[in-house]
């Protein structure tokens, strides 16, 4: 989980959310509608039916005409974080699950400090979810929920996302290793996922989480590779320079296709490795998802 030294730095960040929620809760995002928050927007002439408490009596004394003050309405934005708890994520010296939890906690903290509404969904079963708001108090409960999570069944990502009920317009972040036959065999399938979320008025960010050991293969000899989600599925392989090169070429093609599919659909794609420092991931590699 996050070190306390990160929090002050994280508070300077804000996730870039294009869509504004229609919810009535107050937050730190400016709505196009006028409301009653403290930030002044403009004057306009008084019209019958306006709240007389909004009349600027100083302007009336100077101009002998009634004007009212308008203020920008501040609304919560909705941030949805989808996390993959498949057993394939429980891999690596630093596991993909650990990195995913760190990223999820960081993005949640950034959102909650900006008074956004956060919903975290387990992609193996979206009925397991946690909804948080209310700043630091909401974050404490959220981290307790994250700490209780355990890897489970394989995630059918598109099906899981499609089972989520009503979503406020906002930002959706999908975190997964995408080591699912549907995506490995046809990375363009991610376009279906992105288009679906965009239809539901979401700005989409894809975080492709892989272990350092999956990216930088450093082994030689003959091994039995065991499917983490089906222990009876074993493959005998001999690792030598040619097979490692073929693997790296296939991995580059897989990640490249996912990135191209995301870009084609107007989504943001980031490859997040457990071999990269968390500080670099949050403050450098993900900088294009923040609002400055």
Structural description of this entry:
This protein is an alpha/beta fold and 292 residues long. It has two domains: 47 residues, no CATH class; 212 residues, von Willebrand factor, type A domain (Rossmann fold, 3-Layer(aba) Sandwich), CATH 3.40.50. The protein has ten helices and ten strands. The chain has a six-stranded mixed β-sheet with strand order 5-4-3-6-7-10, with helices on both faces. The protein has a two-stranded antiparallel sheet with strand order 1-2. About 4% of the residues have low confidence.
Classification by helices and strands: alpha/beta
What fraction strand?
25-35%
Number of helices: 10
Q: Identify the CATH architecture of the largest domain.
A: 3-Layer(aba) Sandwich
Describe what is shown at a glance:
34% of the residues lie in helices and 28% in strands.
SSE arrangement:
Elements: H1 6-10, E1 29-45, H2 57-63, E2 67-75, E3 78-83, H3 96-113, E4 117-122, E5 129-132, H4 136-147, H5 157-162, E6 170-176, H6 181-185, H7 189-199, E7 202-210, H8 212-215, E8 221-227, E9 230-239, H9 241-264, E10 268-273, H10 278-285
Parallel strand pairs: 3-4, 3-6, 6-7, 7-10
Antiparallel strand pairs: 1-2, 4-5, 8-9
List its salient traits.
single chain; 292 residues; alpha/beta; Rossmann fold; 2 domains; six-stranded mixed β-sheet; two-stranded antiparallel ribbon; 10 strands; 28% strand
């Amino acid at each position: 989980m996050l070190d306390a030294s990160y929090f002050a730095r994280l508070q300077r960040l804000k996730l870039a959310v294009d869509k504004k929620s229609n919810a009535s809760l107050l937050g730190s995002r400016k709505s196009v509608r006028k409301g009653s928050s403290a930030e002044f927007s403009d004057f306009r002439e008084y019209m019958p039916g306006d709240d007389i408490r909004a009349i600027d009596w100083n302007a009336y004394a100077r101009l002998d005409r009634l004007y009212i003050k308008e203020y920008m309405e501040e609304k919560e934005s909705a941030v949805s974080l989808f996390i993959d708890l498949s057993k394939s994520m429980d891999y690596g010296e630093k596991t993909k699950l650990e990195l995913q939890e760190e990223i999820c906690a960081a993005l949640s903290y950034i959102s909650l400090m900006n008074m956004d509404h956060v919903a975290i969904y387990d992609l193996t079963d979206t009925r397991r979810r946690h909804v948080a708001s209310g700043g630091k108090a909401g974050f404490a409960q959220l981290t307790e929920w994250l700490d209780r999570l355990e890897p489970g069944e394989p995630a059918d990502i598109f099906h899981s996302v499609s089972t989520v009920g009503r979503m406020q317009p906002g930002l959706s972040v999908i975190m997964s290793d995408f080591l699912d036959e549907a995506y490995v065999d046809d990375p363009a399938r991610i376009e279906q996922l992105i288009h679906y979320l965009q239809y539901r008025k979401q700005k989409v960010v894809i975080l492709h989480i892989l272990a350092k050991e999956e990216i930088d293969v450093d082994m030689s000899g003959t091994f039995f590779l065991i499917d983490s989600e089906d222990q009876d599925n074993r493959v005998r392989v001999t690792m030598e320079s040619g097979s490692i090169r073929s693997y790296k070429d296939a991995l580059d093609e897989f990640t490249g296709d996912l990135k191209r599919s995301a870009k084609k659909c107007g989504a943001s794609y980031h490859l997040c490795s457990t071999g990269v420092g968390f500080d670099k991931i949050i403050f450098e590699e993900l900088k294009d998802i923040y609002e400055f």
